[in-house]
Amino acid sequence: MTTMPHPGRLLRMSIVLLGLLPATAGAQDGETLFKQNCGACHVIGRRLVGPDLTGVTEKRSKEWLHKFIRSSQTFIKSGDPDAVAVFKENNELIMTDINLDEAQIDQVLAYLGTFGKPAEAATATATADTVPEAPITYTDADRAAGRELFDGTRALSARGPACISCHNVNSASLMVGGTLAKDLTEVHARMGHAGITGILGAPPFPAMASSYANAPITAEEAHQLAAFLEEANTRRTEVPARSAAVTYSMFGGGGLALILLLIGLHWRRRLKGSVKQDILDRQLRSI
Ligand code: HEC
Ligand code: HEC
Fold it and tell me: Given phi > 0 = left and psi -120 to 50 = alpha, else beta, which region is 116?
């Protein structure tokens, strides 16, 4: 079963044979590096967490790209107008610093360079991982399952840690979560389904990546967690007001009872176990 290669492919294959082999090998390693280090936030052909990078090697200089990839925040803070503009256009989402050396970045750029201009990308990227985005629907079952996964009521299938050990979400149905990492109440509004599931599929943040490296989150679980985060964001305005009042009165009433109890205990001890009593006891023992 052999199929005839597409004419465009034949052309590219013959260019390879004409002596561009090293560049293409670089692009292939670049593809692996790209998928590992950038894939959580970027795909070719459409936006994920970060923008579509199709044609970026033509739009920006090599030096610019190196600086941005090494440490986008340092570059943005230095005031480079294009870096500041792209940061603003992307809702000020933070691209993490990428720990690749010069040569590896060059390989990634060689790979990105194979996508040329946006128009070419449409044919160049008709691969399995860039299927067109289907409309996302969340069911009540998804939201409920996502909440249980988030707070650990139900374990993730690969037994990774519950999100709540590091993240908080402002939701009445949840106990207060961790503060090691960002509050996720608004994350769905900023990243959407694609961004959240992208991050959960290959977390680009070291603390999170190491937690799930050997315990990958399934696509279904990522979808359910996204459903819960969407709900947490859209319903948070009514919910916290009520829960805050309830919590306040609970702690208020309970706190008063506790204080009265402590005062009672204190005075009881004062009557029975006084200092004089202690001295007397010691003297009795020394006899
Ligand atoms: C944590 C998510 C994340 C990761 C990982 C990530 N990026 Fe980004 N990237 C972004 C975001 C978000 C932006 C938009 C700019 C901003 O908000 O700072 C961006 C912007 C860019 C830009 C500028 C695009 C333009 O139009 O000028 C380039 C180039 C880029 N990323 C390349 C990469 C490469 C290459 C990698 C991997 C080596 C990578 N990024 C990894 C999130 C990410
Ligand atoms: C071991 C700690 C840890 C665990 C567990 C963890 N995360 Fe994270 N997560 C982080 C860190 C660290 C970041 C990087 C951003 C920051 O510093 O808050 C992050 C970032 C994120 C982001 C991007 C936030 C943003 O605004 O850029 C999302 C979304 C996210 N985590 C979702 C989850 C979900 C859902 C779970 C549960 C399946 C989870 N995380 C479990 C530590 C963790």
Answer: left
